[in-house]
Design goal:
single chain, alpha/beta, Rossmann fold, 8-stranded mixed beta sheet, two-stranded antiparallel ribbon, 10 strands
Length: 309
């Protein structure tokens, strides 16, 4: 049985034609047939786009079905399995990577993303999660351009019961990162989470600042047992704009993975399929609520299986 059992019923595609409503006998839905004609394909495209799958992937799948089955009566189960396989094919070996953690190394996570996506909250949740996993964890409050971010991160550090490097007002973000790295070396922390600015005067300023922070970190990798990973925080409600966010941040500091936030509502996060296919970027963690424990490791199989529910 495919991950997407009865998905065509869930998105409202009829078993006999594009305009008919699905029959109630869901137990026998896989025995029903669909006439794959142009009207059906247009309806298929429209309904898939509305599920947040995106225009490009919706059209690509429709084209696949057209090329293979146009003018044929095809069982619902076959089309269902085609969509299941099509979506799963978005995740290749690289996009299925799991986050790499090593207690024998000084793990550094540079957390990037635009303001408002839940970056600071995600750092707090990860700090708590890593501490419970036995990591001696330190947070660096390097979003010095937004005072509220430093205050918020300080509160999260208390909730997670981890240490924080937070300098006086007006300190440069690069100075915060340098001090945090020095503290990591001197006091044997094996986990450092670095918050970064999400917005400066313009995109050019933001990326220049991020590049400076990345340079500070990488310059210290040679003389210490560090393992650096850069994670981009994305809001699950973000649509096609997620592509430009990945491109912009990846140009400055090579991204290793994604943290998907606000996945506790009606957001489908269909852009994950596009990002996996286009950039081969894995999703490492998913934020599912406001509690400090509401962060989970991403499962692509669960994601696909629940996508049309």
């Amino acid at each position: 049985m495919s991950f997407l059992k009865n998905i065509f019923a869930k998105i409202g595609l009829g078993a006999n034609s594009a305009s008919e409503t699905i029959v109630d006998d869901k137990e026998n839905i896989e025995d029903k047939k669909v006439l794959v004609n142009h009207a059906y394909l247009e309806d298929l495209e429209e309904k898939l786009i509305k599920t947040d799958l995106g225009v490009d992937l919706s059209l690509e799948y429709s084209k696949l079905i057209e090329e293979k089955y146009l003018a044929q009566d095809i069982k619902q189960s076959i089309l269902e399995q085609e969509l299941n396989d099509f979506l799963l094919s978005s995740f290749d070996e690289n996009s299925l990577n799991k986050v790499n953690l090593d207690k024998n190394k000084k793990n550094i996570f540079l957390i990037v993303g635009v303001n408002g996506v839940g970056k600071t909250t995600s750092i707090g949740k990860l700090a708590s999660k890593f501490k419970k996993q036995g990591f001696n964890t330190l947070i660096a409050a390097a979003d010095t351009f937004r005072a509220a971010a430093e205050e918020q991160l300080a509160l999260w550090s208390k909730r997670a019961d981890v240490d924080i490097v937070q300098l006086e007002d007006g300190a440069k973000a690069s100075t915060v990162v340098f001090k945090a790295i020095e503290k990591t070396k001197a006091e044997n922390y094996n986990m450092l989470l670095i918050d970064t600015a999400g917005r400066l005067q313009n995109k050019k300023d933001l990326m220049a600042e991020l590049k400076k922070l990345n340079d500070v970190v990488t310059k210290n990798l040679a003389d210490a047992n560090f393992a650096l990973q850069t994670l981009l925080v994305l809001d699950a409600t973000t649509g096609s704009n997620a592509i430009s966010q990945v491109e912009n941040f990846n140009d400055v500091t090579k991204l290793d993975g994604i943290i998907l936030t606000k996945f506790d509502g009606t957001a489908k996060a269909g852009m994950i399929f596009t990002l996996a296919r286009k950039f081969k970027l894995p999703v490492f963690y998913v934020g599912t609520g406001e509690s400090i424990d509401d962060i989970k490791e991403f499962s692509f199989e669960n994601f696909v299986s629940k996508y049309f529910q």
